[in-house]
């Protein structure tokens, strides 16, 4: 098959001729998509604000039992979502689509308190409630707290993830998750995300003696 090659100047010249023909015929070039108004462009740059001085604190306590080895890479994250959709732009300002629920992830530090036990401070007021879109105050809620762990942090290692929901944390509940030791430090799948099980009976019988646990608990801190 013979493929013709065109120079850039030839392509530009051809386009210019097409524009002249279209203009003569009373037509306009086809738009490449909806053109955003200045207000829409401004909304697309909207940055929801993290609270620089949160006060509603809880201490997260994490305990690892029967660990298969050291966890040299450990990070904590707080997930906040806007809970009242009515504060978001309506469909007619978002090309006919409902605005996605805003969500933000804020990292927090963990400190080793003793062998296998760690703690960190999480906040329920980590984001600022504010009228971001001129449609009323957007209210943020702590939805989830997650701790991510790897043996060393090397690419390809299993990513162990222990979660506790915001409601569980506020209620002072304790949550234990079971993980298979055979996934440490690597699984048969690179970068495998292992979120564990709350019930050890979900593992095959022959694996139940080869598990470790991560337990999450919390307590409210008074100012």
Account of the protein in words:
With 223 residues, the chain is of the alpha+beta class. It is 13% helix and 32% strand. It has helices spanning 8-24, 38-44, 166-170, and strands at 57-65, 73-82, 103-108, 111-114, 117-123, 140-150, 159-165, 175-180, 193-194, 211-220. The strands form two sheets. The chain has a five-stranded antiparallel beta sheet with strand order 4-5-1-10-8. It has a five-stranded mixed beta sheet with strand order 3-2-6-7-9. The model is unreliable at 1-45 (pLDDT under 50).
Would you spell out the secondary-structure blueprint of this structure?
Layout lengths: L7 H17 L13 H7 L12 E9 L7 E10 L20 E6 L2 E4 L2 E7 L16 E11 L8 E7 H5 L4 E6 L12 E2 L16 E10 L3
Parallel strand pairs: 7-9
Antiparallel strand pairs: 1-5, 1-10, 2-3, 2-6, 4-5, 6-7, 8-10
């Amino acid at each position: 098959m013979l493929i013709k090659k065109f120079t850039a100047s030839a392509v530009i010249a051809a386009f210019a001729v097409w524009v002249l023909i279209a203009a003569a015929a009373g037509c306009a070039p086809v738009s490449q998509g909806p053109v955003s108004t200045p207000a829409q462009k401004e909304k697309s740059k909207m940055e929801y604000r993290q609270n620089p001085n949160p006060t509603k604190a809880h201490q997260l306590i994490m305990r690892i039992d029967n660990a298969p080895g050291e966890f040299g890479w450990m990070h904590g994250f707080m997930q906040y979502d806007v809970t009242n959709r009515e504060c978001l732009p309506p469909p007619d300002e978002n090309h006919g689509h409902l605005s996605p629920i805003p969500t933000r992830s804020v990292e927090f530090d963990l400190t080793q308190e003793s062998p296998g036990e760690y703690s960190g401070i999480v906040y329920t007021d980590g984001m600022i409630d504010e009228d971001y879109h001129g449609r009323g105050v957007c209210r943020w809620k702590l939805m989830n707290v997650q701790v991510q762990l790897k043996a060393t942090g090397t690419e390809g290692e299993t990513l162990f993830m222990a979660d506790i929901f915001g409601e569980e944390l506020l209620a002072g509940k304790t949550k234990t998750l079971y993980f298979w030791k055979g996934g440490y430090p690597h699984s048969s799948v690179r970068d495998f995300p292992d979120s564990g099980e709350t019930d050890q009976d979900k593992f095959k019988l022959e694996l139940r003696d080869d598990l470790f646990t991560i337990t999450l608990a919390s307590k409210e801190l008074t100012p």
